[in-house]
């Protein structure tokens, strides 16, 4: 029995056009899954497909917006016709809107309600709820599936500044546990990966100055991370393959798998 062999599985990765989502898609493809790369940016999506194919995997890009229930339904139908019925779903869409950040003279009472709602829509509604509503029932009806949501080290005790992001990611963990309980009797497992700090396009300005040196916030993060470094996107692959594999994690559901270099293992 090969614990981490995903041959014959169909993995849908929403947000695979981003750095971390793309790494998760590549990891699943290297483990043998047929990967459906979903996202809004076709160029990045096709680049992810090529990386998977170059490593010997099978993948295809399907344009989709996680915020559109109709768009997800169309993508689902296209995936099923092209690759087969999805058995793995990775919800990697999300991010932080600077307009909901509290810093300097900007206070929480200065955040516009529409910006707050937009951040929740991105991380919780489009990031988890809508994809699970679209892809989850099919897995339940077939009695097999693994859903992997992406949380954050800020989902528990929130980080400073990113208030809406932290609150919405806390919701991701709560919804993960709710769905895990609801769908466990039907053979569908629902878990979350909690990444630490991985430099990507959305947080690069937060972590690095224009000259490439770490910002004060980056120095604070590294000082709080026992491993003393940022994560590399490929270091998330193993966590996704583990949670996707029913052989390796068949009795694992409703859990949060941290990949954070020890960030949450200490306070001061």
Q: Secondary-structure map with pairings?
A:
Elements: E1 10-14, H1 19-30, E2 34-39, H2 42-54, E3 58-63, H3 69-82, E4 88-91, H4 113-142, E5 145-150, H5 163-183, E6 188-195, H6 204-207, H7 216-223, H8 237-244, H9 246-249, E7 256-259
Parallel strand pairs: 1-2, 1-4, 2-3, 4-5, 5-6, 6-7
Protein name: Short-chain dehydrogenase/reductase SDR
Keywords: Oxidoreductase
GO molecular function, one term: oxidoreductase activity, acting on the CH-OH group of donors, NAD or NADP as acceptor
Say what the CATH topology is.
Rossmann fold
How many separate domains make up the residues? 1
Based on CA atoms alone, the radius of gyration comes out at 18 Å
| Average pLDDT score | 94
Keywords: Oxidoreductase
Pfam families: adh_short_C2
GO molecular function, one term: oxidoreductase activity, acting on the CH-OH group of donors, NAD or NADP as acceptor
Family: Belongs to the short-chain dehydrogenases/reductases (SDR) family.
Can you walk through the features of this model?
- The chain is an alpha/beta fold and 268 residues long.
- It has a single domain (10-199, 232-265), classed as Rossmann fold (3-Layer(aba) Sandwich).
- The chain has nine helices and seven strands, in the order E-H-E-H-E-H-E-H-E-H-E-H-H-H-H-E.
- Strands 3-2-1-4-5-6-7 form a seven-stranded parallel β-sheet, with helices on both faces.
- The radius of gyration is 18 Å and the shape is globular.
- Keywords: Oxidoreductase.
- One of its GO terms (molecular function) is oxidoreductase activity, acting on the CH-OH group of donors, NAD or NADP as acceptor.
- Belongs to the short-chain dehydrogenases/reductases (SDR) family.
- Pfam families: adh_short_C2 (PF13561).
